[in-house]
Specification:
Helices cover 37% and strands 18% of the residues. By secondary structure, the chain is α/β, with parallel strands linked by helices. A 9-stranded mixed beta sheet has the order 5-4-6-7-3-8-9-10-11, with helices on both faces. Strands 12-16-13 form a 3-stranded antiparallel beta sheet. Strands 1-2 form a two-stranded antiparallel ribbon. Helix 4 packs across helix 5 and helix 6 runs parallel beside helix 7.
């Protein structure tokens, strides 16, 4: 006779085991969201496919990256030349392209004739035109605003055409109305759009640097807008002005391989292409402010600091000579308001004034001072008075 109680218990146990397995693999609602908790040994035993390198040790299928440079530094030419090199299997500025791969260049800014002329000049200069179906151009000047609305359809078309590299040029055209490129929230839509396309191909997004000197800045600090954009990449390129006109310094970064050394590249306006100059030192041009970055000459930097301190010394002495004795806090604020004092950060100004006190340019009282009658009194709240040594 069948014991239905035992069968029921067995069914309950099997159901419980199934639920436990589902939880172990992130089942149910989490599984539907693509969230899966994988035990470390199981994760290590399930080896993902090796990197499918499009540009060796820099760009692989599925990666997302940035190119940042100042305005008018030939960023679009760089992106076009990269797409052309990948589509023809030609090495790119010292980087190995293992074989020809399909690429797509999204022109979001140039008039169509301008893009045509640039690609025409580049193809002639390289003496190699892509085979049919190897390079696609998507012209969306004036119509890029709604491109993000079609992320899924674009990813499907990229897969259908077998495209392995996408170049989006430039990033700011993907910023929708009402979004702020300088905030993380404003950039989120554009970065998520790139994420969706990266599920189908490697994606390079071209952006611009903020105003000011970029010498000595790390890769994550390049590119205008929120820091979010500078941190969200698998590979990155940056172009900086070389100390010689017509040349640039190419910096390259890949999160999963060693960072290659900077390279000097030269832009040929007639051929409209870059060429590597490996024998020319990659020295970034400093601005007229001198550039305080990591590449600045230490002797020049020390001389600038000496001159700045000398100007401050004169300003402090002259101010103290024409003013009554005053509290140290008021004195610092007054000096900070001068052009000489404004060149110093608050803490640096405090240190500089203390050094000028030690040097005898100005003097400060102790917490107690002598009165005109010869007595000693404590200053209110322990304040310190500042003036010339004579005063």
């Amino acid at each position: 006779m069948t014991d239905y109680g035992d069968i029921g218990a067995a069914l309950d146990a099997a159901e419980a085991q199934a639920r436990e397995a589902e939880r172990a693999h992130g089942g149910g609602e989490l599984a539907d969201a693509g969230i899966c908790f994988r035990e470390w040994r199981a994760f290590m035993a399930d080896e993902p496919p090796a990197f499918d390198w499009i540009v060796s040790d820099v760009i692989a299928k599925g990666m997302k990256g940035d190119l940042n440079a100042k305005s008018k530094c030939w960023k679009s030419f760089f992106g076009m030349q990269l797409a052309l090199a990948v589509a023809t299997g030609r090495d790119f500025l010292g980087m190995k392209v293992p074989r020809a791969r399909r690429a797509a260049y999204f022109n979001l800014e140039l008039i169509e004739r301008g893009a045509w002329e640039r690609f025409s000049a580049m193809g002639a200069a390289a003496d190699a035109m892509p085979e049919a179906g190897m390079l696609y151009v998507v012209n969306l000047r004036g119509r890029a605003g709604r491109l993000r609305d079609h992320a899924d359809a674009l990813a499907d078309e990229v897969r259908r055409l077998g495209i392995d590299l996408i170049v989006l040029d430039p990033r700011y055209k993907l910023i929708a109305e009402g979004e702020d490129e300088n905030s993380a929230a404003g950039l989120r839509g554009g970065l998520e759009f790139r994420d969706r396309l990266a599920e189908a191909a490697a994606v390079l997004m071209i952006g611009h640097d903020p105003k000011g000197d970029t010498a000595g800045k790390g890769m994550a600090d390049r590119g205008a807008g929120s820091y979010t954009a500078g941190a969200d990449y698998d590979f990155a390129f940056a172009l900086s002005p070389h100390e010689e006109d017509g040349k640039s310094v190419l910096s390259t970064s890949c999160r999963y391989r060693a960072t290659p050394p900077d390279l000097t590249i030269c832009f040929d306006p007639e051929r409209q292409t870059f060429a590597a100059e490996a024998d020319t030192p990659a020295v970034v041009r400093q601005t007229r402010r001198g550039g305080g970055g990591a590449t600045a000459d230490p002797k020049e930097k020390a001389e600038r600091e000496r001159l700045k301190l000398a100007a401050l010394e004169k300003a402090v002495h002259d101010f103290a000579a024409r003013s009554e004795l005053m509290g140290m806090g008021t004195f610092r604020q007054s000096i900070k308001a001068t052009p000489e004092g404004a060149a110093f950060a608050q803490n640096a100004l405090r240190t500089a004034i203390d050094a000028l006190v030690e040097k005898g340019v100005v003097a400060k009282t102790a917490a107690k001072v002598r009165t005109e009658g010869g007595g000693v009194k404590c200053l209110k709240n322990g304040g310190i008075l500042v003036g010339t040594p004579e005063k």
